[in-house]
């Protein structure tokens, strides 16, 4: 009881805390770039594996063996030897029964006896082992103050892996409606030992106007990527050129202007769409920012940016969204969030939402479905290194 009272007093003091005005003036230079070193990793996938890798992560066990893991659309988590490219095993997630998990969306591997599976539609976190047996169900439907928690996906598509700090689980929250923006917390904390949950004292902030929201979708602009670098959380909102560096308790918030040289500013045009396809095509081509990825091997960060593009008719732009855009760049940041470079990648070649960081470099999927050389039977990655520009 005493523990809960302390937390509630903390939240009362901080509940009106929203976006802070602490803007850090960083430097910008273009002395570095991402360049392919020619190394390719290629993994064979079977006919039951759909080419939509929205939850893909690496994992290293106690023996230092490295795994590439991803969730199949058929409720399976597949494990490959990352370096040898061999398929190892899969975990079948049951739909019904005592080990049933309805609509699994993402996962987090603490170890092989503690694999956490998220569901996009239900406020449960399932802890399983490699047989798929459920060890524990963690419900997080409502916080102590009565806030209804939005189910969390744990995707790599919108890069938001689960974060455990001690016994506390930090879950991001989405915005359900525009008029809820300023009162919706960025995330909640689930105390797994005391079975309590609390909102973090950092609410969403306005990125677009009501008029702009009426013309488009709130999700495109209020979606975000979140990483934890071991000391602080870092947020990249897709509709905002600033990133937020936030203390663990979310009381200290710093903004860093991380602007792409390929995006002047994000503007939502006043346009009328004749059908859903035209709307989807426009949304696919409008300028946005994307995921923020931490590179602990080199003390760097990579922020993805999507310049505005004009698109041809024909492709299924809704289906292609999960694999990133036709055109993108990667902004390179040092450990103090100074911009030290930006690399523009060729169109319809790489999948900027399917990647992983390794000691070799940044591996990006080089098998885009719109590429003429696309092969649906493999998942392949090309390795990029940060080098001096012009070398």
Annotate the secondary structure layout.
Layout: H1 2-14, E1 23-24, E2 28-44, E3 56-60, E4 66-72, E5 76-81, E6 87-92, E7 104-111, E8 114-119, E9 124-128, E10 134-139, E11 163-165, E12 168-172, E13 187-191, E14 196-199, H2 210-215, H3 218-222, E15 224-228, E16 233-237, E17 242-246, E18 253-257, H4 276-285, E19 288-295, E20 300-306, H5 317-320, E21 329-333, E22 339-344, E23 351-358, E24 361-365, E25 378-388
Parallel strand pairs: 1-18, 2-22
Antiparallel strand pairs: 2-25, 3-4, 4-5, 5-6, 7-8, 8-9, 9-10, 11-12, 12-13, 13-14, 15-16, 16-17, 17-18, 19-20, 20-21, 21-22, 23-24, 24-25
Q: Tags for this entry?
A:
391 residues, Neuraminidase, eight-stranded mixed β-sheet, five-stranded mixed β-sheet, 40% strand
CATH class: Mainly Beta
CATH superfamily grouping: TolB, C-terminal domain
User: Into how many domains do the coordinates divide?
Assistant: 1
Q: What order do the helices and strands follow?
A: HEEEEEEEEEEEEEEHHEEEEHEEHEEEEE
Low-confidence stretches: 1-19
Distance between the termini: 62 Å
Please estimate the helix content: under 10%
Query: Could you give a short account of the major beta sheet?
Result: 8 strands, mixed
Number of helical segments with 4 or more residues:
5
Beta-strand percentage? 35-45%
- DSSP strand tally: 25
Question: Taking all residues together, what is the mean pLDDT?
Answer: 87
Structural class per helix/strand content?
mainly beta
Gross morphology: globular
């Amino acid at each position: 009881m005493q523990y809960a009272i302390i937390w509630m007093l903390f939240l009362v003091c901080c509940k009106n805390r929203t976006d802070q005005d602490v803007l850090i003036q960083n430097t910008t230079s273009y002395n570095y770039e991402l360049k392919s070193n020619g190394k390719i990793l290629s993994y064979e996938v079977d006919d039951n594996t759909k080419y939509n890798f929205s939850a893909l992560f690496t994992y290293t066990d106690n023996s230092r063996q490295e795994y590439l893991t991803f969730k199949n659309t058929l409720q399976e988590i597949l494990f490959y030897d990352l370096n040898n490219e061999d398929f190892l095993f899969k975990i079948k997630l049951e739909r019904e029964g005592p080990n049933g998990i309805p609509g699994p969306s993402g996962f987090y591997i603490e170890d092989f006896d503690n694999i956490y599976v998220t569901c996009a539609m239900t406020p449960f976190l399932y802890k399983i082992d490699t047989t798929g047996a459920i060890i524990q169900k963690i419900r997080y439907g409502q916080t102590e103050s009565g806030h209804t928690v939005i189910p969390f996906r744990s995707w790599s598509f919108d890069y938001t892996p689960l974060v455990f700090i001690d016994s506390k689980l930090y879950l991001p929250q989405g915005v359900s409606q525009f008029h809820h923006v300023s009162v919706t917390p960025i995330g909640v904390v689930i105390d797994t030992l005391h079975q309590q949950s609390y909102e973090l004292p950092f609410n969403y902030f306005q990125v677009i106007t009501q008029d702009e929201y009426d013309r488009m979708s709130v999700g495109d602009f209020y979606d975000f990527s979140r990483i934890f670098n071991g000391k602080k959380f870092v947020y990249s909102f897709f509709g905002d050129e600033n990133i937020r560096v936030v203390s663990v308790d979310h009381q200290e918030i710093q903004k860093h202007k991380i602007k792409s040289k390929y995006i002047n500013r994000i503007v939502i045009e006043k346009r009328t769409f004749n059908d859903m396809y035209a709307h989807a095509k426009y949304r696919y081509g409008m300028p946005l920012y994307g995921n923020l990825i931490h590179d602990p091997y080199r003390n760097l960060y990579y922020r993805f940016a999507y310049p505005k593009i004009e698109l041809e008719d024909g492709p299924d732009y809704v289906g292609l969204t999960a694999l990133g855009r036709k055109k993108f760049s990667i902004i390179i940041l040092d450990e103090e969030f100074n911009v030290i470079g930006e690399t523009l990648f060729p169109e319809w070649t790489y999948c900027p939402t399917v990647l992983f960081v390794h000691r070799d470099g940044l591996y990006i999927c080089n098998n885009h479905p719109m590429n003429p050389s696309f092969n649906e039977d493999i998942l392949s990655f090309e390795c990029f290194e940060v080098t001096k520009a012009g070398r």
